[in-house]
Amino acid sequence: QVQLVESGGGSVQAGGSLRLSCAASGTTYSTYSMGWLRQAPGKEREGVAAIDKYGSTSYADSVKGRFTISKDNAADTLYLQMNSLKPEDTAMYYCAAARRVGAVTVVAGKGYGVDYWGKGTLVTISS
Length: 127
Hints:
By secondary structure, the chain is mainly beta. Helix content is 5%, strand content 48%. It has one helix and eleven strands; from the N terminus they run βββββββββαββ. Strands 2, 4, 5, 6, 9, 10 and 11 form a seven-stranded mixed beta sheet that branches. β5 (46-51) and β6 (57-59) form a beta hairpin. The longest helix has 6 residues, at 103-108. The chain is globular, with a radius of gyration of 13 Å. The relative contact order is 0.31.
């Protein structure tokens, strides 16, 4: 059974940091583009960051310089290090895996081409 399980969400003050993790199982994710998307209440889903099977990354402009995506292929785990958090980063963060599109599309496509989704982890940033 294919599964993506996120962890690491929580509540922090603005300026703080969080590290999200996504444990993948059920298939060989090293051949997938993996990414993070988020959705805030009342807003549409948006891509945050993604990394393709070659290690190339893509970021939304709103998080460049603050967030870093990485993956451990041996452990089938995806990470998102989030620094200098802002209240506008508050959202449910979802892990995603896409076999047929690259990192740029995972971010810009807002979910287009994603084959598998996690259930999400909530990030709340207070001012």
